[in-house]
Amino acid sequence: MAGPDVAWYLAVSSFLFGIGALGVLIRRNVLIVLLSLELMLNAGNLALIALARHWHNGAGQIFALAVMAVAASEVCVGLGLVVALNRRNLSLDVDRLSELRG
Amino acid sequence: MSGLVAASAGNALVWLVWVVAAFSCLASGVAVISFSNAFYSALALIGNLASLAVMYLLLNAEFVAAAQVLVYAGAVVVMFLFVIAYVGPRREAPWSGGPGWQTVAAVAAAGALLVEIVVAVGLQASGSLSSESPVGAAFGTPAWIGRVFLVDHLLAFEITSVVLLVAAVGGVILGTHTRRTDPAIIGPGGTVREREPEPEAVH
Fold first, then answer.
1. Beta-carbon separation of A34 and B80 below 8 A
2. What tens digit of pLDDT does each residue of B126-153 get?
3. Domains, chain A, ranges and CATH?
4. N or C: lower Cβ tally within 10 Å for chain A?
């Protein structure tokens, strides 16, 4: 195969997942936490597609497409929550959103 | 001989594209989590998605790369930008406003997760990653994806549509929820009535 081995793709995927996990843990803004979740999902997608190419198995690419649909659903519900929080004039700081009751 | 030279030049080109894509992928990932303004973070996510799409193209996943650009850059990031603009510039504690140990613990937990992934992948797959299976020209094309998705994985396809429907209904319900603080202004069916105009002062 021309180009980098699958291990290089897995390395990039691991580091991207680590960056996303760091963003989820360290940031306090709900919107940036959601963006970091997207980073983590994309890292998973990259690993799936790299291994689908490696083993010549189409299920990996199908799984990646399903992950994209799940990511779109997650954004839909998450941004709906952000809009609902904003309507109630609540803070978007995840440390202050520790109760389910507004 | 000339074929060999051309092959090695193509190999070097693939490596060059890969290095640029991988570097911009990681750099824009760091940018996403380090901007204090969420708008810039969402814009950095577009760069991350584009460089990931380039890597998908290198991995013979043309359809997934196109879907990535359409679904993420076309729909998800636009929705993010819309909501960020709707919420407005609320810069409250962009970085950890909590105690310092929280930051340290977050960095330690993320680092532990990364180490765990690297160790798990290295232990599980280090032996089998070197042998490469050849792929045909049809691998990753829309026709091939369609056949695999709609014949072999039809149940996953249908469940995906149900998940998207449920998420859309949930998003609409969350988005149209009216404020319940003042029951007087909420009419029947949860609709918000206009306040009655104040009666004019009578002289």
1. yes
2. 766 766 666 777 787 888 888 888 888 8
3. 6-87 (1.10.287.3510)
4. C
